[in-house]
Amino acid sequence: MAEIRRERCLACGGKLGNQPLMQFDGMPASAQDIPDAGEVKTDRGISLNLYQCSDCGLVQFDCPPVAYYRDVIRSGGFTTTMVELRRRQYRHLIDFCRLEGKKILEAGCGRGEFLSVLREFPVQAYGIEHRADLVSMAQEQGLRVWRMFPETEDTVLASADFDAAPPYDAFLSFNFLEHQPDPGTMLRCIRNNLSDGGVGLVTVPSLEYILQYNGYYELIRDHLAYYSFGTLRRLLEHNGFQVLEEELVNRDTLSVIVRKADFRETGTSGFDRLDISGLAASRRDISRDIDSLLERLAKQGKTLAVWGASHQGFTLAATTGVGKTARYIMDSAPFKQNRFAPASHLPIVAPDHFYEEPVDAILIVAPGYTDEIAGIIRQKYCGREHATEIWTLRSNKLEEITEA
């Protein structure tokens, strides 16, 4: 049965138009429904159509959301890079908005990776999460998390178990909005649970970053919408928030601080139809560079593995020769191990699988964590007996990492 394609913008309801900006074939069907040994036999790549709304300018896929769009599943939440970023963001938000002693709610908190960091600060920290097992994991850490999702505008985000009830003084939303088929309803629900003058911190992946470096491998079905500062601001203002600060963090993520305000009609002007021809060119160039690396390794009798069972790693494996040549994908997240990458079907293994099946080169595909992972490889998997090459995809170029 064919999927029903969306004809209107998920943010403003405007028409998406007749022609997509671009079609991407052979893409992973999802980033989290990772097939196991039985499911991999029927797993296939899919085609994705990228559109731009003719009214508000938001770039988006026209497909339905993945089944688990209400769930927050993070594999990099406890990395040093991300923990330090969250500490810095929390410190600034609490100081800037005078939130000491105040109630802060994280909407979509997963198993509490970021909420556990918030406990270091003098605030009352709460979290909601849709997936039951993640809620249990968070509660086992002593976090005040309950199962809930901002499904409708009038959903009351309360929990008697943790003496948590609106109004909250602030909210957090980390890389969650881009998954939502109805982001306006989510934002209005959160707004209705805030005190007057309540504030929030919202992050989403950056469309500007993708276009600046033509990173087609950043595209995945899980992310229905691709926000720029302009389209994110328009969405927030239309749903009752004033944007106080905008910042680009970790090179590839938009971060904004907002305050509850009156609803605004945002209009439809101020954007141009995007030229994304660079994404197609980037796909060709990256594939060419990877083919060159693979050819050289093959001639030398050397083998390759990938580090990063991320949506970027899945897309790259599905759309280049990596998927047919690499031995495996290394990833430290246990829930991804012993499964197979969607579309390419590369086996996903724990990093220490290297000791059982050494490879001569490792390609890191985990934007934001490259340096941290390279350090782990040097420490654990490089030595006198095995000189492992370390490669990464920096923006749209293949690069060998040669020094610490």
How many helical stretches? 10
Q: What fraction, in percent, of the residue positions are helical? A: 25-40%
Largest sheet: 7 strands, mixed
Using the CA coordinates, give the radius of gyration: 21 Å
**Which strand order do you get reading across the main beta sheet?**
6-5-4-7-8-11-10
Mean pLDDT over the full residue set: 92
Summing up helix and strand content along with how strands pair, one would put the structural category as alpha/beta
List the helices and strands in order. EEEHEHEHEEHEHEHEEHEHHEEEEHEE
Overall 3D form: globular
Terminal CA distance? 51 Å
- Number-wise, the strands total 18
Low-confidence stretches: none
Strand residue percentage: 15-25%
Keywords:
404 residues, 18 strands, seven-stranded mixed sheet, globular, 26% helix, 10 helices, alpha/beta
Please give a structural write-up.
This protein is α/β, with parallel strands linked by helices and 404 residues long. The longest helix has 23 residues, at 277-299. The termini are far apart. A seven-stranded mixed β-sheet has the order 6-5-4-7-8-11-10, sandwiched between helices. A seven-stranded mixed β-sheet has the order 14-15-13-12-16-17-18, sandwiched between helices. A four-stranded antiparallel β-sheet has the order 1-2-3-9. It has helices at residues 80-97, 115-118, 132-140, 183-192, 207-212, 229-238, 277-299, 311-319, 322-325, 370-381, and strands at 22-27, 46-52, 59-61, 103-107, 124-129, 145-147, 168-174, 194-205, 225-226, 241-249, 253-260, 304-307, 329-330, 339-340, 347-349, 361-364, 389-394, 397-400. The mean pLDDT is 92. The chain has ten helices and 18 strands. Helices cover 26% and strands 23% of the residues. Strand 16 (361-364), helix 10 (370-381) and strand 17 (389-394) form a beta-alpha-beta unit.
